[in-house]
Design a protein that fits this description.
Blueprint lengths: L16 H6 L12 H6 L6 H12 L9 E5 L5 H10 L2 E6 L4 H10 L6 E5 L12 E7 L12 H5 L2 E14 L26 H11 L2 E8 L3 H15 L3 H17 L4 E10 L1
Parallel strand pairs: 1-2, 1-4, 2-3, 4-5
Antiparallel strand pairs: 5-7, 6-7
Helix pairs in contact: 8-9
Bound molecules: S-adenosylmethionine.
The site of S-adenosylmethionine (SAM) has 19 residues, from loops.
């Protein structure tokens, strides 16, 4: 599991303009991954950058080797490969929309077939026993299923006692009071954005559940700039026309906002 291996599909091999454009001083680990691989497999904001931001708050470097980690809503499993490669975890890569056969191929090409197990799973019906995992990670997915007041305890029961859950989600600087989108974002608004909240909202939401002690609930400084850079790159470089169109929409959204309202929140809780 060498960081400098060139035998897999994820490692940066030689300098190229795309990789240079995406080499980011805040995310040195992610910058070692092949940029084309990240663009081809993206499903939204840069998943590896967000996971790299989450990692220290979640204590991923302190996990024992082969610790069991659930990557919930893993999408195309880039974060699952990152968890195995960077933190030597045994990862269950669970997702609803992406076919596990597809993820199995991608994971094998990356050289981590023995460390990452892809499964199709619905977040409200997870087929795992109580206490199965040392940690649960979710990047840009928890907002789809985790805003219900009763959800968190059904998930944290899968953690070993003292185990941690960490998520990164698109987020708001301030909660929205009315039923209308903010004026400056009206033209770009999607009803799904009502699931975005502030770090304080998430802290209260998780604390009230009684399922975890919240250890972090904070805001990624200048996260919107990262989101914009990444979306611009994906709009130009994505080989999938649908993903390129969605990236163009993100460019318009984030440009219209200029960091006034939108960004990312990181929330970490320890099973009580
Ligand atoms: C925006 S994509 C992000 C994927 C990946 N985490 C990433 O950042 O590249 C959101 C993912 O959440 C997953 N998802 C949404 N609702 C889900 C649910 N109810 N159960 C499991 N996964 C879900 C989808 O399958 C999708 O892959």
């Amino acid at each position: 599991m060498s960081d400098t291996s060139t035998s897999d599909t994820t490692s940066r091999t030689s300098p190229d303009p795309l990789t240079d454009r995406l080499t980011h001083p805040s995310y040195p680990r992610s910058s070692r991954y092949d940029a084309r691989w990240t663009v081809e497999n993206q499903m939204g904001p840069h998943a590896l950058w967000l996971l790299e931001w989450l990692a220290p708050a979640l204590g991923l470097d302190g996990l024992r080797p082969c610790a069991r980690v659930l990557d919930l809503g893993c999408g195309r499993a880039m974060t699952s490969v990152f968890l195995a490669r960077e933190f030597h975890a045994q990862v269950t890569a669970a997702d609803l929309w992406i076919d596990p056969d597809d993820n199995a191929r991608r994971i094998a090409e990356a050289g981590f077939a023995d460390h990452v197990l892809p499964v199709r799973a619905e977040a409200h019906d997870l087929p795992f026993a109580e206490g199965s995992f040392d940690a649960i990670v979710s990047v840009d997915a928890y907002q789809y299923f985790g805003t219900n007041d009763l959800y968190l305890p059904t998930l944290t029961r899968l953690l070993k006692p003292g185990g941690r859950i960490g998520i990164v989600v698109p987020a708001l600087r301030e909660e929205l009071a009315g039923a209308e989108p903010p004026e400056h974002l009206k033209a770009h608004w999607d009803p799904g954005f009502w699931a975005f909240h502030t770090p304080d909202w998430w802290r209260r939401h998780w604390t009230r559940s009684g399922a975890v002690e919240v250890e972090a609930a904070d805001w990624l400084e200048d996260g919107w700039r990262d989101w914009l850079l990444w979306s611009e790159v994906c709009a130009e470089e994505s080989p999938d026309e649908n993903m390129a169109r969605m990236a163009r929409e993100s460019v318009e959204l984030v440009k219209a906002d200029q960091g006034q309202l939108l960004g990312f929140a990181r929330i970490v809780g320890r099973r009580s």
